[in-house]
Amino acid sequence: MEHIRTPKVEQVRLLDRFSNKFTNGTLYLTATHLIFVESSSNNSTSAAQEIWILHHHIASVEKLSLTTTGCPLVIQCRNFRLVHFVVQRERDCHDIYSSLLRLLRPVSYQELYAFSYNPKQNDQQREEGWQIIDLGAEFERMGVPCDQWQLTNVNRDYKVCETYPRDLYVPITASKPIIVGSSKFRSKGRFPVLTYFYQEKKAAVCRCSQPLSGFSARCLEDESMLQAISKANHNSRFVYVMDTRPKLNALANRAAGKGYENEDNYSNIRFQFVGIENIHVMRTSLQKLLEVIGTRSLSMSDHLVGLESCGWLRHIKAVIDAAIFLSKAVTVEGASVLVHCSDGWDRTSQVCSLGALLMDPYYRTIKGFMVLIEKDWISFGHKFADSVYTIYSTWCDQLDGDPKEVSPIFTQFLEGVWQLTEQFPQAFEFSEWFLLQIHEHVHSCQYGNFLGNNQRQREDLRMRERTHSLWAYLMSEKQNYLNPFYSLAYSETHPVLEPSTLPYHFKFWRNMYHQFDRSMHPRQSILKTEEVGEEATESTDTERKVEGSSGSESRKQSYGDVCVARGSCRSVCDNLLFTQWS
Amino acid sequence: MEFAELIKTPRVDGVILHRPFMPTVEGTLCLTGHHLILSSRQDNAEELWLLHSNIDSIEKRFVGSLGSIIVKCKDLRVIQLDIPGMEECFNIASSVEALSTLDILSLMYPFFYRPMFEVIEDGWNSFLPEDAFKDLETMTDEWRLSDVNKDCTVCPSYPPLVAVPKDVDDDTLRKVATFRHSGRFPVLSYYHKKNGMVMMRAGQPLTGTNGRRCKEDEKLINATLRPGKRGYIIDTRTINLAQQAKARGGGFESEGYVESIKSNILQESLIKLVEASNWQTHVKEILTTACLAAQCIDREGASVLVHGTEGTDSTLQVTSLAQIILDPACRTIRGFQGLVEREWLQAGHPFHHRCAQSAFSNSKPRQEAPVFLLFLDCVWQILRQFPCSFEFSESFLVLVFDHAYASQFGTFLGNSTAERAKLSLPEKTVSLWSWVNRPQELERLTNPLYEANSLVIWPSVAPQSLLLWEGVFLRWNRSSKCLDEAYEEMVHIIEYNKELQNKVNSLRRQLAQLETEDPLLQTLE
């Protein structure tokens, strides 16, 4: 609170991003949010617009030079919202600016919203919320432990690998010395462990980090480890090793004593490069994309050329291509696959989780998708604290973060899922809105799930005792995220999805990158018919819902036909119930 | 001329048909005067019937003695036929080539086609200018129907009857016609009921380099303006091409300003357009111009005159799209047919010239241009943005597109009303609308989400909001099974929803009845 110099500024003008329109209102600064409330006088026909921006969502604040109308303040958010205020008095603007600068850079974990957020639940409810997702049960569902795979306690105290979870599954034949030996030969100690078991063919998907092979180094334990993985699957004589990096990058790593598996040293492996670019390329690509779509009065050709040259959709395609390769190897050939990249927490997480999503209908349900994220991203140590908290800001003093680590890897994963939902409208229990909500909260720091870089850090911070779980909140809101087209029968007849990767199947995800630019969206859905036609060609109209991470709002957004039927259908059902009881 | 002269080989056995996303079919290939038919001669197998007029280009390839021809159609479908025997292949290819490029209107299929369905309503009489004018008369008395063009001499591309301001007599119209390109003097295109503003269209004024003026032309335009009001003239061409034009407000001089919008003549080949993405640029520009025209009328309360060069291409795109935006009636199935009749067929869009060839043709484009397809694409973009405001679904637009290029119906033959009358199309051919306006077809073309929306609908023209029309451009190159299933699911949900709604209503009624009947319940409350 002591950082807030001016809690309220009146006569603030909010400029529209893509037109010359603006609204006047009042700006409030609270300990957690920046709130803009439209003054009701200038727009009496509709409810006053409110915009809530969580401080944690702010990626950058910029104060532009003084203009005749006042002092402009541009705020860029991690959920791709961009707001442009004009504050009349420069001093007010400066106060807000410097307060925000301080507020958006927490100096300790305790300052994060999650530690103060209280959704009025008691300890028991909170504990139950954390228990919704149980990874032990998930492995049981896959059929593990079994006669070939077992739970190992080697990482009980995070001694072998501190970025892995405590519970790890390895082949029965992999003894403790083999595991420890293998972990010493792998970057950050991330040795091969099971992440998905395809019961039908007894084929396993394992993940690890790159070997410290350099130009010629070998490790017998690591070789036995791969041998053990291979032996655990009787259906195939070999195991695929997928290096998700481009070959050039892997070669360069050799000079640093790292690298990739030499096929001659390992018996029965088939080595494969996949060619997904690294986090730095991805970050630049997204920055370019945002630059293009943020242009005012963008011409069609600039839009298309920009979309093409930023390469974003090409990168998405590369990730999906890799997932398809993985899914085919497992489901068609019945071979086990070992996936790694450099450290095994970015591209590896993308490929393993998308691959599992293609193979297993369970992960296409709401609960299953939470499990998938919990397993392949949270528990296996995707560095959320580093890579997700800032996507395109340039702030250097992140909370134990490094700006070079910041990258939209998880966003890319969500987009990959979205591209699949577009191709298979009936295969997913959840709608696009579910993905957007997860994206929102990965950055909001409102729930404990995505705080910290790995399980160990989360345990040290006693996250489960001090914060709430996002999954519990999403579960309670499940109704809002259902896909009306979801069909169980479809999942039964199409357990494995085989997406097409022809270029035109990869589309620009407007609802993600223009989520808050209402003028860009389809103008009508049954939910909002009354608003149709009130907008001028280039206008954005009012935004009625309180955005940000205020938790309790159920957000309905008009996005095309998908949610059209759902809302009305449900309200009719509710009506029906009500009528019968009254 | 006999078709038999052109058909060198009427029948070949053992032909294999390849299509994307479909299993290959082996069967017998037959050529008739109007069709290319492939039949596997099995009961359940699908047959291929392809109109020769649908064929855009044909290529031959030979591998050993096996020849194959690749047929590219105007509806953007590409198929391959493997034909055993060099000679047969060669004969088939040249026959098809000759038949598909036959440029004699009276030999076209519509003249030979006999309907296999019962015509409930003759589409040729469904949208007569007289009837449209009757509707106008109920709203205003400032216009009259002039028969100055009754023998199509004043303006060959106009219909015999046109709506013009009441105070302007036929002699004035004749003079104005000499001042406008192709004699296309300004006529009424749309009357905006809400505020009485109008949209007119015309050919370009022949001002020449010395700025020739025409008293009568100015008089006609002024007659459409209310006292003290400004009017807008929208020139759909680039500023370089555009001429200055003036409009006077009633009583005092006020210059209507010229809005210049880039619009190329669209003579590039279609696929090139799509590939180079210029297509989307055109979509955006046409939509922007249409929005501008609609905005002038609805928001600024000003009348608008739209013209390009001839006033038969981009002018019609703009006037018809503006009506889609402004007029809810144009968003119904019947209203849209009326719009196509009024603003395209009767307004003299040269369909025969423009649709003679499509994207794949190798011959040099002369007068071909996908102007009408561009219009349909723009309608589709608006439909995407307002999924509940249109009575028709995407499939209706695709159907109209298909029939504009190749059809068994006579609707899109010829270039103008005069040409159609000369060919006696209404007597000798069947109208597309006769076929569409039957319950079973209408049901197929209806948008399940439709709820009448009486408002003006403003589409977004940001590039991020405009999409590639996959239903046309990728129709034959994608497997739409998943999408079709999802669509069926949506229809199912909507039907279920209606069912529940009815149930709720009947229960409510029951409840209300019980409450009035039961005094005990009332006292309890």
Automatic annotation (TrEMBL), chain A:
Q: Region annotation Disordered: residue ranges?
A: 529-557
The UniProt similarity line reads: Belongs to the protein-tyrosine phosphatase family. Non-receptor class myotubularin subfamily.
Q: Please list the residue ranges that the record marks as compositionally biased, kind Basic and acidic residues.
A: 541-557
Q: What SMART domains does the record point to?
A: PTPc_motif (SM00404)
Catalytic residues of the enzyme:
C341
Superkingdom of origin organism: Eukaryota
Question: Which residues are involved in binding substrate?
Answer: N278, I279, C341, S342, D343, G344, W345, D346, R347
Give the Myotubularin phosphatase domain ranges.
129-513
For molecular function, the Gene Ontology terms on record are: phosphatidylinositol-3,5-bisphosphate phosphatase activity; phosphatidylinositol-3-phosphate phosphatase activity
Name of the featured protein: Myotubularin related protein 6
GO CC entries: cytoplasm; nuclear envelope
Q: Which UniProt keywords apply?
A: Hydrolase, Lipid metabolism
What does the record list as GO biological process?
Answer: phosphatidylinositol dephosphorylation
Organism encoding this protein: Cyclopterus lumpus (Lumpsucker)
Among SUPFAM superfamilies, the record links this protein to: (Phosphotyrosine protein) phosphatases II, PH domain-like
From TrEMBL, chain B:
Q: Which GO terms describe its molecular function?
A: protein phosphatase binding
Q: Which Pfam families match?
A: Myotub-related, PH-GRAM_MTMR6-like
Q: According to its record, how does it sit in the membrane? A: Peripheral membrane protein
Tell me which UniProt keywords the record has, alphabetically: Acetylation, Cell membrane, Cell projection, Coiled coil, Cytoplasm, Endoplasmic reticulum, Membrane
Query: Which family does the record claim for this protein?
Result: Belongs to the protein-tyrosine phosphatase family. Non-receptor class myotubularin subfamily.
**The protein's name:** Myotubularin-related protein 9
- PROSITE patterns per the UniProt record, alphabetical: PPASE_MYOTUBULARIN (PS51339)
User: Which GO biological process entries does UniProt record here?
Assistant: negative regulation of autophagy; phosphatidylinositol dephosphorylation
Give the UniProt entry's GO cellular component terms.
cytosol; endoplasmic reticulum; perinuclear region of cytoplasm; ruffle membrane
Q: Origin, by domain of life?
A: Eukaryota
Gene name of the record: mtmr9
Ranges for domain Myotubularin phosphatase: 123-473
> Which first-to-last residue range defines the signal peptide?
none
Which InterPro entries did the record assign?
Myotubularin, Myotubularin-like_Pase_dom, PH-GRAM_MTMR6-9, PH-like_dom_sf, Prot-tyrosine_phosphatase-like
Q: Where in the cell is it found?
A: Cell projection, Ruffle membrane; Cytoplasm, Perinuclear region; Endoplasmic reticulum
